[in-house]
């Protein structure tokens, strides 16, 4: 049966246990036939691995260097929460040795696809389950979409927008690659350490820039709640999410609630992403009189593929600039930081 990589440094949390149980069920169903699927790797060929979204793909590729070939199940520029896997994804996953997930629950369809189509000797690495202590988890209230039905609490899975949480994820990425390819340990460890040093440099610059946002403006009003871990780390109240939990277009009543929420926050800007419905958010901006900044990203890397900014760090530099500038701060502390690894 397929293995799930786990760190000995963190106790199992309830959500990690639930993730493991679901993976076992999926894997058992996938292994119901007498045919055993195994991942293949030619002598001297790169280790084939996958990540569910581009930011995690980039982290894995940076640690792996030339020794790994990394695909992203969710294509560049596509919303990782709602992506519907294709037959091409099925074929691509058949030969990978490891699948890295930021969280089992981010896109259940991708997780199910993995359980059904990964080789039996492949490993699934749930980075949140390995690295985020239970006490650090945040939860969000879901809400009805015009039907009056509330749907309880949901765990917020977007830990990777907080670079402090990404550091132990990089350790776990390196651990998984070393376990699969021990001969590459020296390369993986060197790349791991270099990337962690670069994230530490960025984090200092980001914190300096974010500290310039006036106290009265230190509220992030967001369309999708990807920023609660970021906000907690850097001293921002996060208001939202404005988006319905089922990712559907908002009803008229929810539009009114959005306008009121944005107006009541008393900040100069609210934030979203280009993968969200721009016309809806522009209408909210018009009715509230508050600027809409539609450039934040939790899963889309900026720039063209291969460009220095087309990285996890490039994404976070852009995000911090948009937040700081939108809320009246000074982002110049980021000017000297050039993300160069990818």
Automatic annotation (TrEMBL):
<dbReference type="InterPro" id="IPR006129">
    <property type="entry name" value="AdhesinB"/>
</dbReference>
<dbReference type="GO" id="GO:0007155">
    <property type="term" value="P:cell adhesion"/>
</dbReference>
<keyword id="KW-0732">Signal</keyword>
<dbReference type="InterPro" id="IPR050492">
    <property type="entry name" value="Bact_metal-bind_prot9"/>
</dbReference>
<dbReference type="InterPro" id="IPR006127">
    <property type="entry name" value="ZnuA-like"/>
</dbReference>
<dbReference type="GO" id="GO:0030313">
    <property type="term" value="C:cell envelope"/>
</dbReference>
<keyword id="KW-0479">Metal-binding</keyword>
<keyword id="KW-0813">Transport</keyword>
<dbReference type="GO" id="GO:0046872">
    <property type="term" value="F:metal ion binding"/>
</dbReference>
<dbReference type="InterPro" id="IPR006128">
    <property type="entry name" value="Lipoprotein_PsaA-like"/>
</dbReference>
<protein>
    <submittedName>
        <fullName>Unannotated protein</fullName>
    </submittedName>
</protein>
<dbReference type="Pfam" id="PF01297">
    <property type="entry name" value="ZnuA"/>
</dbReference>
<dbReference type="GO" id="GO:0030001">
    <property type="term" value="P:metal ion transport"/>
</dbReference>
